[in-house]
Amino acid sequence: MSYKRTAIFGAGAMGTGIAQVLAVASMDVVLLDIKTEFVEKGLKKIASKLESDVKKGKLAPDEKDRVLGRIKGSIDRRDVKDVDLVIEAVIEDRKIKGDLFQGLNGICKPETAFATNTSTLSVTDLATLSGRPDKFLGLHFFNPVPAMKLVEVIPGLDTAQEVTNEASAAMKSIKKVPIVVQDCPGFLVNRILLSYMNEVLLATEEGISPELIDNEVKKAGFPMGPLELSDMVGWDVSLHTFPILHDAYGERFPSLRLVQKLNDAGRLGLKTGKGVYVNGQIDDEFRGMVASLSPSGSRSPFSVNRLILKQVNEAVYCLQEGVAIAEDIDRAMVLGTGFPSKDGVGGPLRWADEKGLDRVLARLEDLAATEGPRFWPHHLLKTYVAAGRLGKKTGKGFFEY
Ligand code: 3HC
Question: Which of 51, 63, 88, 152 is catalytic?
Fold first, then answer.
């Protein structure tokens, strides 16, 4: 079945972005939230993004009106009874998402596919709660949705193969790149990205300046600094996602105190006008928060490789666990987060191959000794190095050259 009529639950940054790309691709969309004002705000956001596309000459003015005409705002769940696909992009809370799908199971046609845009929760678990596990899957988009090409397609244990195939085809039809990944906490990209974000926050808690971190990361070729990116995604999202990864993977994702402090202070990022940065600057309140966490200051000079190596090691875990194959791991990190690439080729595994896996292993061992066991190198790296597969310089690493 190809999807013509769709419904998006949640008119926040992700829901509005998804609604926009579906409507641009000629699908009808019902955009729902719990309050009319949230829906109206979401519709305004879409209209303003489309208007900016018109100004850039990327969209004809009459096409903008046609796209907007395909999106209907609603707060009434009964408006979704005839849709072919529901995508949920509400708050990262198992109970809220589970209750929503359970309710929809009684409203939607039996053949309607259910998708969650969860960042970290188990797709299989939500599928079970929904009551239609064979028609349920994860469709994980990346912020800002109109700009990021990747959609992770995540079948649960009981998802029918044809539902995965249809959803992948639909993602191609909206000009996204679907990559099928295994259902595990954080899936592929958030596992790797949040492992690095976790390290960024530990470095910040040590007193290393956010501007230094963001600048060094951008100098290394990433499109945004990690703290700017977190301000864009929202610290409320971080508050929900980090503990899930900590519960799943233990000390590779240590608990963070700064995220709670930012939330307590209402500094959620761009959505509240204040996050780590306020108008691009660090203010006294933020400095005070960090000082209360790191009275003795940073232990060692900062190197951006400390952050990138976290991505590499987690990527190796994902490879070894079969979350995705090496090509897809790298492609997903390029398309979902802008990991540095040349002609579209790049990503953490290729980065490691370029550096030399022997050097990567040695550096991870040093970091494990100085920073802690969260840097413990994955045993696959040791196997590769012992076998002389050192990366580009020997013609074979994670890839062949
Ligand atoms: N909303 C919608 N569209 C946006 C946008 C926004 N906030 N910001 C930028 N864009 C669009 C622009 O309109 C432009 O589209 P166009 O090519 O059709 O005109 C395109 O993005 C490029 O924008 P710019 O040229 O102005 O800006 P940049 O070249 O600086 O790129 C970026 C902006 C694409 C956001 C780039 O900085 C980037 O790739 N950043 C990394 C983003 C990232 O890592 N996202 C993943 C976050 S994690 C996540 O979402 C998972 C979730 O579970 C938490």
Answer: 152
Our answer on whether the CB atom of 335 is closer than 6 Å to any ligand 1 atom is no
> Is 152 known to be catalytic?
yes
Model's pTM, two decimal places? Answer: 0.96
Q: Give me ligand 1 centre to Cα 147, in Å.
A: 5
Query: Is 82's pLDDT higher than 70?
Result: yes
109 with 6: CB under 8 angstroms?
Answer: no
> Mind listing the domains of the chain with CATH numbers?
5-180 (3.40.50.720), 189-293 (1.10.1040.50), 304-394 (1.10.1040.10)
Q: Say what the pLDDT of residue 301 is.
A: 81
Q: Whose CA is nearest to atom 35 of ligand 1?
A: 144
Burial 355-386 (b: 16+ CB within 10 A, else e): bbbbebbebbeebeeebeebbebbeebeebbe
pLDDT at 297 over 70: no
Answer whether 155's CB lies under 8 Å from 180's CB. yes
